[in-house]
């Protein structure tokens, strides 16, 4: 057989961009086909906003309603659910059922798997934010950010989602399957929400709890998002008396680096003790 014939019969490998797009499509389809993931990740934050917005309808001062305050926290909690919780549970499940091991044995670039996960997180995060803002504006007269506040909104969301996604990938290696990951991550996430100024004003949280919360990204995401939804007069109720946006960027950036290091050190394509 001639070289020319061989060249004609050898299928061309897809480009890296095509592989990334294909993997991203697979991740999105798998997410939206899992009813439990859709309900918990997309619907739960909306239910929180509806319930708390209806029950805790009071004025915080300066003409600001609790719902205006709460929307920042519930968006931060939604980002946490779409990234850290979603990644930890889904990757642990895929490792336990052999999906990761099968993918590892294919010619697919390893980076495509993570690109697919990142695209999924970004898409779900954008969808969560859009739904929450729509519900907030239509039913609770929430005032949207204006001008440069949208830029702050964007970088806080991006840094927070990146940090939590990396942490979720790292945490997935601690669990043997999706159920154990859910049982481990969900209670921790709920506790962080309670102490990070999601369900209550952060100034009402005991000081020692504020200190604990300050070690984790959720507190800083919520604080950064509050700065775009609330007037500057309410910054005085923050622990430092300001929004501390520089520190918000620093802490979230540090968590991104820490999460990346943890991913490199801990990620496994198969369960321990298997070949």
TrEMBL record:
Q: In its keyword annotation, does this UniProt entry include Transmembrane helix? A: yes
Q: Name one Pfam family in it.
A: ABC2_membrane
Q: Which GO terms describe its cellular component?
A: ATP-binding cassette (ABC) transporter complex
Q: Where in the cell is it found?
A: Cell membrane; Membrane
Q: Which parts of the chain span the membrane according to its record?
A: 38-56, 68-93, 114-140, 152-171, 183-202, 248-267
GO terms in the biological process aspect are:
response to antibiotic
Q: Which UniProt keywords apply?
A: Antibiotic resistance, Cell membrane, Membrane, Transmembrane, Transmembrane helix, Transport
Please report the stretch or stretches of sequence annotated as the ABC transmembrane type-2 domain: 36-270
Q: How does it sit in the membrane?
A: Multi-pass membrane protein
Q: What family does the Swiss-Prot or TrEMBL record give for this protein?
A: Belongs to the ABC-2 integral membrane protein family.
PANTHER family noted in UniProt: ABC-TYPE MULTIDRUG TRANSPORT SYSTEM, PERMEASE COMPONENT, NODULATION PROTEIN J
Protein name from the UniProt record: Transport permease protein
Q: Which organism is it from?
A: Geodermatophilus nigrescens
């Amino acid at each position: 057989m001639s070289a020319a014939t061989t060249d004609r019969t050898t299928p061309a490998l897809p480009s890296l961009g095509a592989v990334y797009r294909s993997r991203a499509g697979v991740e999105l389809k798998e997410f939206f086909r899992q009813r439990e993931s859709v309900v918990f990740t997309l619907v739960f934050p909306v239910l929180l906003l509806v319930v708390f917005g209806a029950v805790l309808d009071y004025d915080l001062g300066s003409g600001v309603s609790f719902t205006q305050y709460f929307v920042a926290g519930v968006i931060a909690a939604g980002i946490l659910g779409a990234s850290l919780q979603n990644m930890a549970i889904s990757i642990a499940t895929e490792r336990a059922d052999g999906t990761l091991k099968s993918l590892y044995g294919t010619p697919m670039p390893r980076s495509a798997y993570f690109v697919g996960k990142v695209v999924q997180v970004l898409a779900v995060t954008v969808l969560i934010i859009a739904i929450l803002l729509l519900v907030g504006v239509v039913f609770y007269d929430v005032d949207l950010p204006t001008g440069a506040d949208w830029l702050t909104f964007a970088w806080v969301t991006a840094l927070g989602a990146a940090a939590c996604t990396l942490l979720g990938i790292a945490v997935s290696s601690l669990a043997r399957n999706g159920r154990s990951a859910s049982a481990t991550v969900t209670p921790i996430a709920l506790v962080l929400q309670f102490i990070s100024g999601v369900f209550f004003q952060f100034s009402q949280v005991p000081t020692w709890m504020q200190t604990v919360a300050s070690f984790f990204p959720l507190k800083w995401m919520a604080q950064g998002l509050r700065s775009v939804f609330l007037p500057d007069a309410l910054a005085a109720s923050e622990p430092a008396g300001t929004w501390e946006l520089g520190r918000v960027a620093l802490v979230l950036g540090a968590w991104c680096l820490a999460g990346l290091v943890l991913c490199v050190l801990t990620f496994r394509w198969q369960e321990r003790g298997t070949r």
